[in-house]
Amino acid sequence: MSKSKKLWLVLVVASVGVAMAVIVPCLRGGEVPSSSHYQVLDPVRHGNLTIFPVVTSSSHDTHAFLTLDEGLRSGDVIVSESGNISPLVRPRRRDGVWREPHSDGAQVNQLVLVNNSKKPLLLLAGEIVTGGKQDRIIGKDRLVPAESDPIDLSVFCVEPGRWVAASGNYNFKAPVAMGAAMGGMVQPSVRSKAMADKDQSKVWDQVRASKQEMAQAVPTASETVEVTSSYAGAIQNQAVQHKLESVAAPVEQEYQSVIRQLRDRNAVGVVVAVNGEIIWADVFASSNLLEKYWPKLVRSYAAEAMVQRTNSTSATVKSAQEFLARIEGRREVVESEPGLYRHTEISGDGFKVFELTSLLPGSGFDLHLAKMSD
Predict the structure, then answer these.
(1) Paired strand residues for 114
(2) 22 belongs to a structural domain
(3) Residue-range definition of the domain harbouring residue 253
(4) In a domain, 277, yes or no
(5) How many domains does the chain fold into?
């Protein structure tokens, strides 16, 4: 082969290499985001609250997972102040069930949890547990293995001002709403301070602000709401509950009707707008999980809508779909417990995404995705 032909071949190969180097990143940058299999449907609206149902082309079997409310109601899950359960020793009685000894080493941002169930326990950031020395919320999404040893649980206090065990009881329970033990979830503005800011002072500041806004929204409850230091106590006020139910109940009923109609289409989540502004999304691995969390989630959204009343515009299906589709960010932080779960926090322009992925045998799928406007 002549030198000129060899030179020509080298130039061709080099040109192809440069083209590939340019094209491949472009293709990667233009790939369809992993949330593209979610479809946003026409919304359910009530006042200034708009809920967009989210359906998916595929879902997963999640019946093997236990929720916090289920575990607390059955007694299979024990949550107590740090120091009342040894994190290193798992003593058992004759029946094989762990029970807690009592001492006092309580810490504001740490509780201890034991899962006596034969199912892995799913915890969501923002879930409320009441009791102990202060009411707390779960700090981040995570899984707890079945029949676990005592684990340290990161939490945030939502009851500034109290630091004494009511009636000497150091254990926690799910809050009761409207006479039903449906559990509780703080509203998105409080939830975001725990999940994104991870700052106890900001959580307390937002709790105080939310209570003040509740008092303004429900004047008949203002004196009681302002006196209590507890977010759960404010939400459980009868007048506040009636106000919340006036927003949540119609949305809950209409959405449940939508879920029943869309069961075959795998309704798995929602995108939430308040005053026409999209603020949040919660998406699960299955319709089953969504149905379990829906009563407490819809009331958390209603609480946000109740205290954030302004002149509203209308969020559209297109804007909700775009919000859900954008999950690629500038920065990712991944925490993992091998063989159990992976927690991924994605920071993008104007949003944060939190993904909880099950790594248990036979799973490997996202159990929950939460996205917030930043």
Answers:
(1) 78
(2) no
(3) 34-89+99-373
(4) yes
(5) 1
Assigned domain for 5 exists = no
CA distance 129 to 126: 9
Residue written as token pair 């929950």:
368
Whole-angstrom distance, CA of residue 245 vs CA of residue 243:
5
Token pair recorded at residue 354: 């939190």
User: Could you tell me if 332 and 352 are in contact, meaning their C-beta atoms sit under 8 angstroms apart?
Assistant: no
Which tens digit of pLDDT belongs to each residue from 348-366? 999 999 999 999 999 999 9
13 in a domain, yes or no?
no
pTM of the model: 0.82
Nearest alpha carbon to residue 131 among 182, 80, 84, 82: 80
**How far lies 50's CA from each of 14, 187, 192, 197, 320, in Å?**
55, 15, 19, 26, 10
For the ranges 48-52, 90-94, 156-160, 202-206, the lowest mean pLDDT is seen at 90-94
Residue 230 has, within 13 A of its CA and on its CB side, a CA count of 19
Phi, psi of 26 (to 5 degrees): -65, -40
DSSP state of 257: H
Residue owning tokens 């800011």 = 197
